[in-house]
Write a structure and sequence with these properties.
The chain is an alpha+beta fold. It has helices at 3-16, 60-67, and strands at 24-30, 36-47, 50-53, 70-75, 84-90. Strands 3-2-1-4-5 form a 5-stranded antiparallel β-sheet. Helix content is 23%, strand content 38%. It has 2 helices and 5 strands.
Length: 95
């Protein structure tokens, strides 16, 4: 079973069940020194490359990802039993 496909399926199920923000996820990043930061962002897609979201490269999140490209994301849908956590991702920058 492909965990990314499972996540994509769960997002679609959350959307079908009327979740208020099925694409919302808590994104955790950290500075090079390991100081964590979490914020809510919108998932813009899931495919074989991973979970995709948009960011301003000059924001705190963008700067942290440029300096330390590891991140973790958590989705929560009260309408569904499962939540989903995707950790140890790597940022891929495109301009």
């Amino acid at each position: 079973m492909d965990p990314l496909q499972t996540l994509a399926d769960w997002i679609e199920e959350a959307r079908a069940k009327g979740a208020a923000e099925p694409d919302a996820m808590a994104l955790g990043t950290a500075t090079r020194d390991g100081i964590p930061s979490v914020r809510i962002v919108l998932c813009r897609g899931v495919d074989e490359r991973g979970v995709r979201f948009f960011t301003n490269y000059e924001s705190r999140k963008g700067l942290e990802l440029a300096d330390n490209p590891r991140a973790a994301a958590t989705f929560f849908w009260p309408e569904l039993a499962p939540g989903a956590r995707r950790g140890c991702g790597r940022a891929v920058f495109r301009r």
